[in-house]
Design brief:
The chain is 29% helix and 23% strand. With 304 residues, it is an alpha/beta fold. It folds into two domains: 153 residues, Quinone Oxidoreductase, Chain A, domain 1 (Alpha-Beta Complex), CATH 3.90.180.10; 126 residues, 3-Layer(aba) Sandwich (Rossmann fold). Strands 3, 4, 5, 6, 7, 13 and 14 form a seven-stranded mixed beta sheet that branches. A five-stranded parallel beta sheet has the order 10-9-8-11-12, with helices on both faces. Strand 8, helix 4 and strand 9 form a beta-alpha-beta unit. Helix 3 packs across helix 4. It starts with a strand and ends with a strand.
Length: 304
C-alpha cells in the first residue's frame, strides 16, 4: 500500500509517499481502506521537530490521526464493525495518511449516510478539539464568547458548537470569512491592530474566550475582563502556568462517543465542517504547504 513517510525532521520536502506492507488487524482491530484523512497543524509541528520533547518521532515516521473509510478486514473476534462497514475514526499511531490504516474498534464510530467522506475524514482532531474547548469555558444561554481563529479548522467548528450551546458568538477572522461567519449567526470582527476596541464595540464584556491561534490572545482575553477559568487556549500552554487559564483540546475531547455526536450533528444539518481543499495522497507536500500558508476556511483533506 502507499503511505506518507518522512525520514528526518524538516519542511514539507521531507514528506514522501512510499510503498509499505499492508498491515493485518489483530484482536480488537480492523483494517480500513481510507477514503479521506484530514491534516492538522500539530502534525506539521511534529514533522518539523518542534514537538520533539513532547512527541518524538521514530524514523521513518508516518503521520495522520483523522480518517474515514470502509472496513476491509476484521481482526479475530471483531463483530462491531464488519467488512463493508463505513466508519469514522482515529489512530494514535501516526498512520492515517495512507491507503489503509489499522484502527482499534474503540476508536471508531459508524459514518452516517449524510456525512460526506471528506468531512468525515477531517472530523476527529478539529472536531474533538473544538468540542473540548467549548465545554471547557462552560457556556450557558446568553453568554458571550469570543473565538480567535474563528474560520480555521478548529475555530469554524467551535463557533458553531458555541452557538448550539446558546451563546452569543464573536468570531475573530479575516474579512474574506465574515460572510460565512454571519451565515452561522456569528458576529465577525477583524483581527489585527485595534482588535480589542472592535470587540468591545460589539461585546463590551465577554464572558468567555477560546484561543485557537496563540500569540497574545490569552492576554487579550484577560484585558477584556474574561475570568482566567473561562479562557481556553489550544496553543499557548505557557499561559496555563502564568495566568491559570485552561488548555483543554483534543486530548480532553478525544473519544468515539464525541466523534459520534459530532457526526450526528453534521448529518442533521446542525454543524458544517468546511473543506478548504482536497489533495490526492501523492500531493501531500502541496497540502501541507497550503496549511502553512494559513488563511483557509476549515479543513484540508487528503484523499488516497
Amino acid at each position: 500500500m502507499k503511505a506518507v513517510r518522512f525520514a528526518a525532521y524538516g519542511g514539507e520536502d521531507v514528506l514522501d509517499v512510499v510503498e509499505v506492507p499492508t498491515p493485518a488487524p489483530g484482536p480488537g482491530e480492523v483494517l480500513v481502506a481510507v477514503k479521506a484523512a484530514g491534516i492538522n497543524p500539530g502534525e506539521a509541528k511534529i514533522r518539523a521537530g518542534l514537538l520533539h520533547a513532547r512527541w518524538p518521532a521514530t524514523f521513518p515516521s508516518g503521520q495522520g490521526s483523522d480518517f474515514a473509510g470502509v472496513v476491509t478486514t476484521a481482526g479475530p473476534g471483531v463483530t462491531a464493525f464488519p467488512v463493508g462497514a463505513e466508519v469514522i475514526g482515529y489512530t494514535d499511531s501516526r498512520a492515517s495518511h495512507a491507503q489503509y490504516v489499522l484502527a482499534e474498534t474503540g476508536h471508531l464510530t459508524s459514518k452516517p449516510a449524510g456525512v460526506p467522506w471528506e468531512v468525515a475524514g477531517a472530523l476527529y482532531v478539529a472536531g474533538c478539539t473544538a468540542y473540548a474547548a467549548v465545554r471547557s469555558v462552560s457556556l450557558t444561554p446568553g453568554d458571550t464568547v469570543v473565538v480567535a481563529g474563528a474560520a480555521g479548522g478548529v475555530g469554524s467548528i467551535a463557533v458553531q458548537l458555541a452557538g448550539l450551546a446558546g451563546a452569543e458568538v464573536v468570531g475573530l477572522a479575516g474579512a474574506a470569512h465574515h460572510d460565512w461567519l454571519r451565515s452561522k449567526g456569528v458576529r465577525p470582527v477583524a483581527y489585527g491592530d485595534g482588535v480589542a476596541d472592535r470587540i468591545r464595540a460589539v461585546a463590551p464584556r465577554p464572558d468567555a474566550f477560546i484561543d485557537t491561534v496563540g500569540g497574545d490572545y490569552v492576554q487579550l482575553a484577560l484585558d477584556l475582563g474574561v475570568s482566567p477559568d473561562r479562557v481556553d487556549t489550544i496553543v499557548n500552554f505557557a499561559a496555563v502556568q502564568e495566568h491559570g487559564v485552561r488548555a483543554e483540546g483534543n486530548a480532553a475531547g478525544a473519544s468515539a462517543a464525541v466523534l459520534a455526536e459530532l457526526a450526528s450533528r453534521v448529518a442533521a444539518g446542525e454543524l458544517e465542517v468546511p473543506i478548504a481543499a482536497s489533495f490526492p495522497l501523492e500531493a501531500v507536500r502541496d497540502a501541507y504547504l497550503l496549511l502553512a500558508h494559513g488563511h483557509t476556511r476549515g479543513k484540508i483533506v487528503l484523499v488516497p
